[in-house]
Amino acid sequence: MKVENKNLLPVITSENDVYPYLKKINQFPILTDEEEKKLAIDWLEHGDTKAAQKLVTSHLRLVAKIAMGYKGYGLPLFDLISEGNLGLIQAIRKFDPDKGFRLATYAIWWIRASIQEYVLHSWSLVKIGTTAAQKKLFFNLRRLRNQLKKYEEGYLTNDQIKSISEDLGVTENEVKQMEGRVFNKDFSLNTPLNDENDSEWIDQVEDETINTAKKIEENDVLDKRKALYNQAVKKLEPRELEKLIKINNEVQLEQISAEFNSKLNILPIGNFSNLLIKDRGHLGLAVKLTGNFSKITANKDFLLVGAGVLDHFFSQYCYRNKISGYEFLHTIPGSIGGNIFMNAGCYGNEIKDKLISVIYYDIKRSKICEIRRQDINFDYRKGFQNPNTIILYGKFKIEIGDQAVIKNTMKENEFKRNLTQPQKVNCCGSIFKNPSNQNAWKLIKTSLDDSFYTGPIKLSLKHSNFFENDPNISADLIENFIKTIQKKVEEKHNITLEKELQII
Ligand SMILES: Cc1cc2nc3c(=O)[nH]c(=O)nc-3n(C[C@H](O)[C@H](O)[C@H](O)COP(=O)(O)OP(=O)(O)OC[C@H]3O[C@@H](n4cnc5c(N)ncnc54)[C@H](O)[C@@H]3O)c2cc1C
Prior knowledge:
Shape: globular
Distance between the termini: 47 Å
Bound molecules: flavin-adenine dinucleotide
Number of strands: 14
Structural class: alpha/beta
Oligomer: single chain
């Protein structure tokens, strides 16, 4: 077990770690009311991450205690604890010490919610509880069933079903269905195929998540980004000169090359995570890659990854196949095409370091070409940006690693990201690139007053180089906001910040 990382947060990676982890977290001091308040203010008002860490470590015991209460669902305790820890971080982000409650009182709800979501998600491939009543039923059925069936085996009788339905305010049918699901748990895809080898049933199932763009877009985790994406796409459709087309394969690409060669302005789009379309719309043709371009194919020496594959899915794929080095993509909300264009990176990794070559479509020559990584002029947040090209695939290196380490790195990245950046809000990632040897967020923070941190478009209190915006705000207002920040930083520090966000 990795008991301490450099941030002094204990990390738990397997069931064997549980006991040493519990021992370790017991050593963190419990905070007094005053200490807690001061740390919360230091974190909320001054972004002091050390203060946030102390708030986290002093409440890890609470998370472990709550997680123990969910052991009966047959899930690994270390996973329950990890999920609870994510809930704790959310609570710390939202905690307002001026409301007069202790953090523990407030955090309990977040921790429970996070663990319950994980339990629900893990228990059935068919969602077990989508409404509040169903969730209540799921989490109380076991207890009530145990009370009623203390001395007998078998299914609930009609009277027992009636009694539970009245108790929990749900229909008898819902109780029956839930009993069927909970006590005839889904067959696990991780069940070994047979005793002789390591294969699991999951290995035999076609991985649709990476094969179809539709599946990818449907994933829960990306719902928020999907909403933003759809909103942005709408801007590309209403006027005659603005058109969005989806291209599924190389044949289609050839077929529409004539249209490309008319004077239309072509804009390839990825997952819209770093792209802002001005209110006038894009005067040209926007291209979205799906189908073949949303697939990952493993070859002997490289992975061929479609430009339309989302980062999150690529990193999950690598985790499942024990391929290391792509953990950093787990928390970036882009696509492989966007990554190659931007040279996306975080936590000391950049996409360029993993690339072997890029396969792209040369619009002017109507030709598919390949360029080696060493022939591309990569720089910080500047990738393969040749005009008139559409990135189709990246060829990536394969390095086999330890699956537990890969998972741990992904979780650590998620943990860091939750702690330091706004989540689940409308935002476009970093607004500006970091100038050399400087942090854009620090330059912004020291140049602007509090008025920039409120209103329908505002800087994030967690990270001054991120803005959060009301979903209906116009792109032009956002652009003006960005220009004002740029001007203020120039006045204060005599430095012109370069935009990372692509405004078209
Ligand atoms: C919350 C949040 C956190 C983020 N964190 C990070 C981070 O840690 N590190 C980081 O590097 N970035 C980060 N980003 C920014 C963004 O996710 C990355 O830049 C990502 O690589 C963009 O990918 P995309 O598919 O969304 O591209 P889009 O936003 O759709 O497009 C970005 C640019 O790439 C071009 N492009 C997209 N696909 C293609 C293609 N197939 N061919 C040619 N050009 C193409 C577009 O024309 C556009 O100019 C973050 C963004 C958000 C919202």
